[in-house]
């Protein structure tokens, strides 16, 4: 197979990092709506960004392998820490009397450090739960489904697992930092977990189409990894089986 440079890996990594950074700001806004008489509490980030972040994670793991997705998780952690530091510094710096929005500025960005801690805890554990679940299932599934006809099975299963871990930790830590009131923890957790999972399930056909298109374009379909250790930064491993399953 002729070697070629990647066309989509770098933009996909950039999109993953950008989505996490934006979500830390807009995730502060939550609302309640009723479905079949049941009140559901969720945040704006749940509906707009978090499902897309997990779809991107699925693309990275399914196409480029667990090693690539592992690096992206650490990129997002580093970007989160940098953003929290800059936001905190911006709030703490003196301001001109003519800047009349310091209160609103501090209310929004001053909450971000707590959200960043919650985001790091949730996304770190949740992302690795999602990526390792998908990677392990792929190794198992290619034995009886080499052409990936059952690809949605592992994208959905990994999402349910990853979102449960992510949401529980994110909401729990955010409550501890006072971002959300404690009494809505259970409602917020269940609402976000169910909605995030449902959104990705609904978007599964799009996810599958994008994954297959990128595989064809890149000539990549990595199966397996040297290690699932999240701290093995220099490890990639896996086997590109694209030629085998074209």
Quick structural summary:
The chain is mostly helical.
Spell out the helices and strands N to C.
Answer: HEEHHHHHHHHEEH
**Count of strand segments:** 4
Strand content: 5-15%
Distance between the termini: 12 Å
Give the integer mean of the pLDDT values: 86
Shape category? globular
Uncertain runs are none
Largest sheet properties: 2 strands, antiparallel
Count of spatially separate domains: 1
Evaluate the radius of gyration.
Answer: 19 Å
How does this structure look, described?
With 246 residues, this protein is mostly helical. It has one domain (9-245). 67% of the residues lie in helices and 7% in strands. A two-stranded antiparallel ribbon has the order 1-2. The protein is globular. The mean pLDDT is 86.
């Amino acid at each position: 197979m002729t070697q070629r440079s990647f066309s989509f890996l770098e933009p996909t990594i950039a999109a993953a990092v950008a989505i996490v950074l934006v979500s830390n700001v807009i995730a502060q806004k939550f609302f309640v709506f009723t479905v079949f008489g049941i009140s559901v509490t969720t945040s704006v980030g749940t509906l707009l960004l978090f499902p897309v972040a997990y779809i991107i994670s699925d693309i990275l793991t399914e196409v480029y392998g667990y090693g690539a997705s592992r690096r992206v998780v650490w990129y997002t952690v580093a970007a989160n820490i940098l953003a929290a530091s800059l936001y905190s510094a911006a709030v703490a710096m003196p301001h001109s009397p003519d800047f009349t929005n310091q209160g609103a500025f501090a209310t929004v960005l001053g909450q971000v450090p707590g959200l960043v801690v919650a985001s790091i805890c949730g996304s770190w554990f949740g992302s690795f739960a999602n990526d390792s679940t998908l990677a392990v299932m792929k190794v198992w599934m290619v034995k009886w489904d080499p052409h990936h006809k059952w690809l949605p099975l592992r994208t959905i299963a990994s999402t349910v697992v990853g979102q449960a871990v992510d949401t529980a930790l994110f909401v729990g830590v955010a409550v501890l930092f006072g971002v959300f009131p404690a009494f809505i923890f259970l409602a917020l957790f269940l609402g976000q977990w169910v909605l995030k999972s449902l959104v990705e399930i609904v978007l599964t056909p799009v996810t599958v189409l994008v994954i297959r298109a990128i595989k064809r374009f890149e000539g990549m379909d990595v199966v397996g990894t040297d290690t699932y250790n999240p701290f093995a930064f220099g490890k990639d491993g896996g086997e590109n089986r694209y030629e085998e399953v074209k």
